[in-house]
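Before going further, learn to read the protein records used in this course. A complete example follows; check for yourself that the lines match position by position.
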Amino acid sequence: MTAEIGRDLIHSRLWEEEAEDDNPFSAQTCYCAGYDIYGDILEQATYPEYLYLLFRGERPSPQVARALEILAIAVANPGPRDPSVHAAMCAGVGGSPAAAALMAALAAGAGVSGGSREVFQCMQLWASCGHCPEAWQEALQASPSTGKMQVWPDAEHPPGFAPYGERCSRPVRQTLNALVSQLEDGCISWLAQNRERLEQVVGRPLAMTGVLAAALTDLGLAPVAGEMLTLLLRLPGAAAHALEQGESGFRRFPFFAIDIANDPGPRAKQGEPR
């Protein structure tokens, strides 16, 4: 982007705008990676194709676009038990603004336990281990590294695998199989072939974060971009559940029990038996 505002220039390799003749503060034409967004993309591309263009700066193949669409559907709503959706529901039932509900979902869904940071860490494993079973076995059995400038708590399970459960859940297997039909030769295909072997090494079942990491690696995203896209793709369900809770009210809120190990319970009034 090289739009000139007075003597100031806004530089972007991704985006370019041509100003209206009579209003330099309004764009007449917008280009993303050279494509006219409102002239061409708007009516000829799908939303996953535009997402891919934004993140990769190039047009995806039909198989890649379909894979991204499958991924977006699979993770759009993690469900009320997911911390990110639960947080958005709390904001919704309490009457918080829409932005607060979504920020709550982002914060609760950003960590190393089922969140976007776990996807980041798993994508790093794909970069270092590739398709080598021995490398995966060594990496998955190693203690998690705290790293430099670590702001996250230590992971309590290997990235990409579920902390609970004895076997891989059906939605995870269905998503993996659907993605294999579009990404036949990459990480997703290798993961489908070696899933049970990796699960035996870890002693835990594959999680949706593991599928996300493999698919996003196949789509050519760097770990930091995969982490960002994971946060975005998981927001629709959080928003919908926040709206639902705002309409139904706190009396029908499904999470009333407080999980406190040393909860003293409700205080008895003076004169009442404890």
Observations:
- The mean pLDDT is 90.
- The first helix runs from residue 37 to 44.
- Strands lie at 4-5, 8-9, 15-20, 23-32, 35-36.
- Residues 1 and 16 are 4 Å apart (CA to CA).
